[in-house]
Amino acid sequence: xxxxxISSQSCHATLTESLASxxxxxxxxxxxxxxxxxxxxxxxxxxxxxxxxDLRGIISRLDHFVYLGVETLWLSPxxxxxxxxxxxxxxxYKDVDSIFGTLxxxxxxxKECKKRHLRLxxxxxxxxxxxxxxxxxxxxxxxxxxxxxxxxxxxxxxPDGSRARPNNWLSVFGGPxxxxxxxxxxxxxxxxxxxxxDLNFRNPDVVEEMSLTIRYWLDHGVDGFRVDAIANLYxxxxxxxxxxxxxxxxxxxxWEYLTAVHTDYLLPECQNLIMHWQKLFDDVQxxxxxxxxxxxxxxxxxxxxxxxxxxxxxxxxxxxxxxxxTPLSAKQMMGLIAxxxxxxxxxxxxxxxxxxxxxxRVSTKFGSLYVNAFNLLLMALKGTPTTYYGEEIxxxxxxxxxxxxxxxxxxxxxxxxxxxxxxxxxRTPMQWxxxxxxxxxxxxxxxxxxSSDHTFRNVQNQKQDPNSHLNRYKDYVALRTRKAFKxxxxxxxxxxxxNVLSFLRFSGSERYLVAINFGQIDATNDFSVSPVNASTGTxxxxxxxxxxxxxxxxxxxxxxLTLRAGEGVVIEL
Length: 573
Ligand code: GLC
What we know:
By secondary structure, this protein is an alpha/beta fold. The chain contains 17 helices and 24 strands.
C-alpha cells in the first residue's frame, strides 16, 4: 500500500541563480566539487607507539583517501600546545607539537598529499591562545606591544575596595569567563577554558600577527583553513554589560544559562576581519594561481549564513549537526536542507556537515541503520560535504568512564554530568584492522580506549566486503564524478513523506533520483510523478539494506518502490 505523500510544495526550494548550474560550470573551483574529510590527528594513526596519533601516522594512511576518492583533508590542530583542550589551546602557531611530530613531518605531509592530488586544509584557531603562549606571558608583564594583546579588565571596584568580574559572562565550558591574574592584577577574558585566553582583535598588532600566521602556512603549501570559533572573535567593547538570562532550566554556571548576546555573535568587526583574511588568500592566489578556501566554524541560522556569504565568507552549515530531532523525520530534514538553497546570494555555496569532533557520531545519535543513509545524503546533495573520520566505516561513540575522561569539558562537568558534555566518546581511535588497538597504535594503552567492535568494524575487513559501509561510502563519493552530481542542479520538489525524502540531481540529459527512507518502517511510494516523470530507472547504488530487493544495475519500477527503514537508493533515469 503506497504512503500518501505530503504536499510536494512543502519541500519546494527556490533555486537561486547562484545555484543554477549549467554544463559550462564544469570549471567550478576545486572546493565546490570536493569532499572534505576531517582528521582528528590524536586519533587517526600513531606512528611512534606513544598511543597518540601523529603526522607520520597520517602520512602512512594517505592511501586510504585515494581508495575512497576523497580529495580534501582537514586537520584539527597539530600546533605546539599544552593540550589543555587537545590542541585548541595553541602556544606556538608556527610550530608542530612534538606529540604530533615536527615541521619537517608537516612538510612531508604536504608533499605526500600533493603526490596523491590531495588538498590540505588546516585548523586555524584565532580566537584564543594558550596561556603558555609567549604573547600571553609577555602580556602578563605588560611587555611592549603585547600589553593589549588580550582582553583585560580591571573589573568592578566594590564598595569595600575589592574587585569583582566586570560582568556575568560565562565560558562555553562552564563557569565564569573571566579569570583574575595575580601577576597583572586584572581579569582576562576566555570564551573557553581559563587556559585559553581570548586575543584582542581590536588591537591591530594582533590582526597583523594572525595575518603572518596565515601567510606562514600558505607558504607551507596548504590549500586553506577551517577557522575555529568564529563567533567568539569579538565581544562587546563595553564589558560592563551583562548577558541576559536565557530562561533555560540549567545550573547558573552553565553557558546556556545566559543568552550570549555580548559574546557569541558576529559583530561587524568580524566581517572586516574575514574579508581581510580572504584578501590574504587572493594575494597568494595572484602569485601562484592556486585558489585557497576558508570555511568557518559557526553554529548559526540560514539567514546569517546568507548574510555572511554577501561578504565572501563560507560558514559550515551545521543544521544537520544540531537541529535534527530523533526519531528522524524526513520532512524536518528536507525543511533544513531546502533552507540551504533558499534566499541565498550568488556567492553562497552549500556546505553540509553531519558530525565532527565536538558532537555525537551518526550511529550513536540516530542508530547504525542510518549510517549509509547519511553518507549517501551528504554526497548526493548539491554542495561541499564534510565527513568526520570513521563515519565511512560507521564508527560508534563508546563510553569512557569519568575516571578516564580526558576532555576538559567532561572533566569540568564532574562525575554526575560528564556524560552530557564529554567529547571523548566521539574521539576514539580510528579502527583500521581487527588487531589489538585496531591497528591504531602499538602502545599498550591508546590515549582513549579503542571500541571493542573494532574486531569486525574496521577498514581492513570492510574493504573485503562490497556491501560494507566503507565500500558504499566509496560508491557515494564516486557519484560525484558524474556531471549531475559534480556540478549539476538539484530539484527538491519531489516526493516527501514523514519518512521518505527524495530529490533529483541533473545536468543536461543526465538525471538521477535520490530517495532515502529515514523512518523506522518500510515505505512504499510512487516516485514516478512530476518532476521525475519516469516510470523506470536503473539502480546506481544503494545503502545495501538487509533484505532489500534492490541491487546495482537493476531496472526498477518507480510507481511502487519499497524502501526498507534506513534504505536509500540512487536511480539513473
Ligand atoms: C571549537 C572546537 C572545539 C574547541 C573550541 C575551543 O568549537 O571545535 O573542539 O574546544 O573551539 O577552541
